[in-house]
Write a structure and sequence with these properties.
The complex is a heterodimer of chains A (276) and B (258). With 276 residues, chain A is of the alpha/beta class. Helices cover 28% and strands 18% of the residues of chain A. Chain A is built from seven helices and twelve strands. In chain A, the strands form three sheets. Chain A has a seven-stranded mixed β-sheet with strand order 1-9-8-5-4-2-3. In chain A, strands 7-6-10 form a three-stranded antiparallel β-sheet. In chain A, strand 11 and strand 12 form a beta hairpin. Chain A is globular. With 258 residues, chain B is of the alpha/beta class. Chain B contains nine helices and ten strands. Chain B has a six-stranded mixed β-sheet with strand order 6-7-8-3-9-10, sandwiched between helices. Chain B has a four-stranded antiparallel β-sheet with strand order 2-1-4-5, covered by helices on one side. The longest helix of chain B has 18 residues. Chain B is globular, with a radius of gyration of 18 Å. Chains A and B meet through helix 5 of A and helix 2, helix 3 and helix 4 of B.
Amino acid sequence: MKGYNFAYLDEQTKRMIRRALLKAVAIPGHQVPFGSREMPLPYGWGTGGIQVTAAVLGPDDTLKVIDQGADDTTNAVSIRHFFARTAGIRTTTHTAEATVIQTRHRIPEETLREDQIIVYQVPQPEPLYRLEPSRVETKRMHSLADYGLMHVKLYEDVARLGQISISYDYPVMVNHRYLMSPSPIPAFDNPKMDRMAALQLFGAGREKRIYAIPPWTEVRSLDFDDHPFRPINAHQACGLCGATDSYKDEVITDDQGGRMFVCSDTDHCERRREAA
Amino acid sequence: MTDDPILAARGLTLSFGVIPALRDVDIELWLGEILAIVGESGSGKTTLLNVLSGQSRPQDGIVTYRDPDGAAHDVHAMPAPMLRTLQRSDWGFVHQDPRRSLRMNVSAGGNVGERLMARGARHYGDIRAQALDWLEQVEIDADRIDDLPRTFSGGMLQRLQIARTLVTHPRLVFMDEPTGGLDVSVQARLLDLIRSLVARLGVAVVLVTHDIAVARLLGHRIAVMQRGRVVETGLTDQVLDDPRHPYTQLLVSSVLQA
C-alpha cells in the first residue's frame, strides 16, 4: 500500500521490537519493556500483538488472526485486513496454512509446528498484579523468584472454594524460573503451551511489555500436589461437529432459553465438518 | 550454646545527615538467647534492628551471620537472593504493627502458610495442617483459620504474626516492640507465649523495646542504648538491679511502680 512502510510500522520501530523479542526469547517468561507505539486501534484490542506481528512478518508469511477462537469476529477480520493492506501478505483462516498466528484468548486446537509463530495479545503481562500493587515490588519478586504470594492465592481458593478457581489467565512457571501470565487463554489451553513446537511471543501494548517462550520450553501450570491442575471445559459435545475434546463456547440461540455448545475454534470445527 | 555467636556486629556506624543513629555499636548474639535492646525513642534501637536484619546498610562496620553449617556471611555483602532466602526462612521479623507484615485480605491460614509456600511447600493438606498447628500454638481458635485478619483483635493479630514468623522454624528472629500498643493483660499473655515458644524452639531473638518490664521478663541479656551508642550491656537482671551508667540508672528509676 502506498504511503506506508511494509507492515505499517517504520523499520526503526520494528528493529527496536525485534531487539526486545530477542531478549525475551533468551530469557523465557521474563517481561521485557519496549517502546510501544500508537497503533490505529484502541488499547485492549491487540495493540501489543499487532506490533509484535508487524515486527516478525515477512513478505512470504501467511497470517491467521484468532479472536476468542473465531476467525470471523470484528477484531480478527480487522487485523487480518489491516496486514493484508499494509503488508500485502497472504492471509488465511486455516491453522495449518499459517506461518504467523496472532491470537486473542485462545490457542488453536490443531497442534502447531516448528515453522510457525504464535503471537498472543496480552492485556496484563504481570501475573502478580492483583496480589501486589507495586510494580517495583513485583519486579523484585521476579528477580528473586519469590513467588510464595501466587501460591497464597491458590491456597485461598482451595480453602474457600475447595478447588483452584482460576479458569482463564492461569499462571504458569516457564522453564522452572519465571512466573508468567499466559494471557487470558482458558486454563484448558495451558497444557498446549508446554513444550510447544512453535515459537510463542506475547505483546502487551498498553503495558509496554514483551515476553516469549522459545520452542520446546517447559511450561508448568501452578498447582498443589494434592490439588493438581485440571483444565476446565464444558462436558457437552460440540453441537455442530460433535467434537468432545475441543474447547467449547456456550451460545444462546433464542430468547426462549435455547442454547448450544459449539467449538470455540471455528477453523477446527469447519475442518471436522468438511471431513465428516 | 556454641562458641561462635549466630549474629555478630562490629563497629556499626550510621548517621542520617548530622544525626548519628548508630555510633560504633558492637553486638553479639548466641543461639537460644534473647537480647533485649532498650533505650528511649530516637536512641537508635530500630535503626540497629534494621541494620542487623540487612534492611538498611551501615556506613561503617560489619554484621556477620553464621549459618547452620557454621559458615560466616557478611549480611551486607551477600547477594540479594541469598538475603531474601534467609529473610523468608532462617530469619523472622516481628513488627510492632502486625498489619505491616500480615496480608490483611488473606485468611489467617494463608498468612501462616505463605512462608512455607515461599520456601517451596506444594502440598495443600500439609500446609493447612501446619497452619492449624501453629494457630493452636499461639492460642487462636482453629475455626478462625479461614477468617480474614481484619476481623481479629489487636492481640490476636500480633499472635498471628508470631505464628506466621515462626512457622518456618527460623533460627533468628528480630522483634520490634512486639507488645507495643496492647493493653496490659493482653501484653502479659503475649509475653508468656513468646517466652515459651522461644525457649522451646531455641531461636535467637533480638528484641527491641522501650519497656523495661518487657526486657526484664524476656531478655537474657540487655543492651542499653543512648543517642546511637550502647552505653551498658550485660545480663538483664544484673544491669537492671545494679545499673552502672547514669543513663541506665535514670531509665530504671523512671519505671512506674504499680
